[in-house]
């Protein structure tokens, strides 16, 4: 999981200390990709991929209300490029500051001429349930959407294919529907994570019941930490969807609000699933402790049985080890084999007794 450590937060605070609000400083992965910009223009009749990026002036197609433009900015290290995009689209410096801070919490801010949405998207899920998150910032304008990604992945390739082929509603509706499609795609990835969690928990429960080990406990704690971060990410999505549905903005049309309400329903379902997972994790911790306690009790019972068997043998051996002169059994011809018969008889009687008591 790519959760920002405390050292990153300290470095961010120290870097921003004394600077005025809206100062643009990139806070993120030092090994992040260089800034790459791609643009798509479309409406119901046309589709155009624009590889020529001129940030010195505003794109002419952005002034055409009949065309929707999707600009994707991958890599946030080039602050000058981000600043020029903000100037061309009249994006507030505080918004640009939040875009460059990749440890930003998920939120939505509604301005007069654009809506700013920031949330966490899942970029990778390993077999050991190591989940990697990246920040996605979305600017929703009247006829454009700008997405800012720190790293390149294929999260939105299906949406791009839908736009190119003209399938579904995406080319018939405006930029608000495109924003919905992007957010819905992110939520769908959370459902993929849910399936991975289900498989992980199933394997963990089998291991817990049949062969628990210290590694099992480490896996449970790892899953518990993942659930904390996942719950926070999903709750933030539910919260920002509620804000979009509650606030009045001309940038989100009434028909598209129905789609955003569907995303809210999906996020609430995920939130309920996470709460269920947390209860399962608590139950698994209790089961692990119970299994560990039962194993300890089993070991102690076996040791107690062995001790109980050898106590009378030790008692008899101790009596005949006192070396007194006047002990007639010491000089008896059959005393040694008789003593072994006594030992074996005591062992057998105790084993039968323990068996009847169901201690063995």
- Could you tell me the mean pLDDT? 81
Corresponding CATH superfamily of the largest domain: CorA soluble domain-like
Shape: rod-shaped
Q: What is the straight-line distance between the termini?
A: 48 Å
Query: How many discrete domains?
Result: 2
Beta strands, count: 7
Q: Give me the CATH fold name of the largest domain.
A: Beta Polymerase, domain 2
- What's the total helix number? 8
Give the percentage of residues in beta strands.
Answer: 5-15%
How are the strands of the biggest sheet laid out side by side?
Answer: 2-1-3-7-6-5-4
Low-confidence stretches: 1-11
Rounded to an integer in angstroms, the radius of gyration calculated over CA atoms is 34 Å
Main beta sheet: 7 strands, mixed
Second rung of CATH, namely the architecture of the largest domain: 2-Layer Sandwich
The SSE string, one letter per element, is: HEEEHHEEEEHHHHH
Give a quick precis of the structure:
The protein is an alpha+beta fold and 360 residues long. 54% of the residues lie in helices and 14% in strands. The chain contains eight helices and seven strands; from the N terminus they run αβββααββββααααα.
């Amino acid at each position: 999981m790519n959760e920002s450590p405390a050292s990153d937060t300290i470095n961010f605070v120290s870097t921003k200390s004394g600077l005025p609000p809206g100062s643009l400083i990139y806070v993120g992965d030092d090994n992040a990709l260089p800034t790459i910009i791609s643009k798509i223009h479309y409406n119901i009749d046309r589709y155009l991929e624009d590889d020529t990026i001129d940030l010195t002036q505003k794109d002419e197609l952005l002034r055409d209300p009949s065309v929707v433009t999707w600009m994707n900015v991958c890599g946030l290290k080039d602050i000058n490029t981000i600043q020029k995009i903000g100037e061309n689209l009249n994006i507030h410096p505080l918004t640009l500051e939040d875009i460059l801070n990749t440890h930003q919490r998920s939120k939505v801010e509604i301005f007069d001429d654009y809506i700013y949405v920031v949330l966490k998207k899942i970029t990778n899920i390993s077999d050991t349930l190591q989940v990697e998150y990246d920040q996605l910032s979305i600017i929703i304008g009247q006829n454009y959407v700008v997405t800012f990604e720190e790293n390149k992945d294929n999260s939105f390739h299906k949406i791009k294919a839908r736009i190119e082929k003209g399938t579904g509603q995406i080319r018939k509706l405006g930029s608000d529907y495109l924003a919905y499609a992007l957010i819905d795609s992110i939520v769908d990835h959370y459902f993929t994570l849910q399936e991975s969690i289900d498989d992980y928990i199933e394997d963990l429960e089998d291991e817990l019941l049949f062969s628990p080990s210290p590694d099992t406990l480490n896996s449970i704690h790892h899953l518990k930490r993942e659930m904390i971060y996942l719950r926070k990410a999903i709750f933030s999505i539910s919260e920002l969807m509620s804000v979009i549905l509650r606030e009045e903005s001309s940038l989100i049309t009434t028909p598209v609000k129905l789609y955003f309400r569907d995303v809210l329903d999906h996020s609430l379902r995920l939130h309920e699933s996470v709460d269920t997972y947390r209860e399962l994790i608590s139950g698994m911790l209790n089961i692990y402790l119970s299994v560990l306690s039962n194993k300890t009790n089993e070991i102690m019972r076996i040791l107690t049985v062995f001790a109980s068997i050898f106590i009378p043998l030790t008692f008899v051996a101790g009596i005949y080890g006192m070396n007194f002169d006047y002990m007639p059994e010491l000089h008896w011809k059959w005393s040694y084999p008789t003593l072994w018969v006594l030992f074996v008889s005591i062992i057998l009687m105790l084993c039968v007794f323990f068996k009847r008591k169901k201690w063995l």
